[in-house]
DNA sequence: ACCGCCGCTTTGTGATCACATCAGGACATG
DNA sequence: CATGTCCTGATGTGATCACAAAGCGGCGGT
């Protein structure tokens, strides 16, 4: 039984953590969905112990919420909370983009365009999960160039908290156009236009979430 | 034995979490200090299970770092990381202060002054832990008025990551004056001077950490 | 005297179990 | 028919155990 106590990539609880984190961040779970220790343990064929650690970690990051009795569910955010998280994105992400700008060479811009194409395809297919995934990948790819791992980690935590909400949002309003501001971001990157980049990123980040409050 | 599975305040792992988090954030542990599961379990008279959950949670927040083999220690931050965390503080905290400003009435300012007095006493006594504690309490008390729990949570996470480093910093350079910018913050609050407040907070936040890079 | 190897101890990981609590439904009662 | 109560299954919590890996120190060889 005892498979492999520290296989680098292994470490059951870590594999669980990454899998669940990805599912939450990319909107594969609806808001309010319940996750049980034994359910997940059975699903992955492991015992409750590593499941508990993975869930605890996700709760600590705000990816999941825990009731007073310890029940774990995916969070249902209030409008105030959504607006606050959007405000945090609007604060952090222009800064990340600005720091990435000096290091954004052609190869990067080309990769961003590729990702953006995949994003447009997801929109055409009405595939909310693929849409969220490519959208976040677009941002992460850019921000990785900022050489600011702690700041990027915080941004990802915010994305994580918004995951289920974004799913609910994007499946509700079936969009048929890709996000308009991505083109503006790419243009500003090519032009080396720092203020324009900040504005485009801020607009892109604020845009989608604004629909909720309205 | 089985004491009380969900006593509200109880929940062993949660009590452990809060205790350890407080110790880390307030600089009661030196950077690089090792924490073992069995050691903590014995110290608190509990089993390894809740200890593991508490540590995992703290690692997830960046309060502690974990080696590849799972050993948990308090983090030793590189200079780049310290500067980045300072940059995040410089980004978030002026925003929090600005949001708190409209709601900062006299009672709040008076409480801040009281805290600041305690802070000055800690400086006089050369008590690094008390200094860090009162300093953070000063900021938290102000930011609580911002009505932005997610943003405050992120700021606290940053403080947490800086805890051991601040201890090392403040015990090394034995300061004999209280932080000068707290007075400027209080003055800006009284005057309702929003730009001045942002500047004062940014300066206060940047000041201490700048000594490290220099 | 220094270096490498081997064995012991420490430490983290995951499984399993006993227990308290909670949620939901059936049933009885007004 | 509505409402309160009780019971049962499900669920989280913490303890304990077996195991593998890592750290550490001593011993022997050169």
TrEMBL record, chains A, B:
<dbReference type="Pfam" id="PF00392">
    <property type="entry name" value="GntR"/>
</dbReference>
<keyword id="KW-0804">Transcription</keyword>
<feature type="domain" description="HTH gntR-type">
    <location>
        <begin position="10"/>
        <end position="76"/>
    </location>
</feature>
<dbReference type="InterPro" id="IPR000524">
    <property type="entry name" value="Tscrpt_reg_HTH_GntR"/>
</dbReference>
<dbReference type="InterPro" id="IPR036388">
    <property type="entry name" value="WH-like_DNA-bd_sf"/>
</dbReference>
<protein>
    <submittedName>
        <fullName>Transcriptional regulator, GntR family</fullName>
    </submittedName>
</protein>
<dbReference type="InterPro" id="IPR008920">
    <property type="entry name" value="TF_FadR/GntR_C"/>
</dbReference>
<dbReference type="InterPro" id="IPR036390">
    <property type="entry name" value="WH_DNA-bd_sf"/>
</dbReference>
<keyword id="KW-0238">DNA-binding</keyword>
<keyword id="KW-0805">Transcription regulation</keyword>
<dbReference type="Pfam" id="PF07729">
    <property type="entry name" value="FCD"/>
</dbReference>
<dbReference type="InterPro" id="IPR011711">
    <property type="entry name" value="GntR_C"/>
</dbReference>
């Amino acid at each position: 039984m005892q498979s492999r106590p520290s296989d680098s990539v292994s470490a059951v609880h870590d594999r669980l953590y990454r899998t669940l984190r990805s599912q939450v961040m990319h909107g594969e779970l609806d808001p309010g969905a319940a996750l049980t220790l034994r359910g997940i343990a059975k699903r992955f064929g492991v015992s409750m112990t590593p499941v508990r650690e993975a869930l605890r970690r996700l709760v600590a990051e705000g990816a999941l919420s825990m009731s007073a009795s310890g029940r774990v569910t995916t969070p249902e955010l209030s409008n105030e909370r959504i607006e606050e998280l959007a405000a945090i994105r609007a604060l952090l992400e222009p800064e990340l983009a600005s720091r990435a700008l000096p290091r954004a060479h052609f190869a990067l811009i080309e990769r961003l365009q590729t990702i953006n194409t995949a994003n447009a395809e997801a929109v055409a297919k009405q595939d909310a999960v693929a849409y969220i995934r490519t959208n976040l990948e677009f941002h992460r790819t850019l921000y990785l160039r900022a050489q600011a791992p702690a700041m990027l980690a915080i941004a990802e935590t915010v994305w994580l908290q918004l995951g289920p909400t974004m799913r609910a949002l994007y499946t509700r309003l079936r969009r048929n156009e890709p996000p308009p501001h991505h083109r503006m971001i790419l243009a500003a990157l090519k032009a080396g236009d720092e203020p324009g980049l900040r504005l485009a990123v801020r607009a892109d980040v604020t845009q989608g979430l604004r629909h909720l409050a309205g």
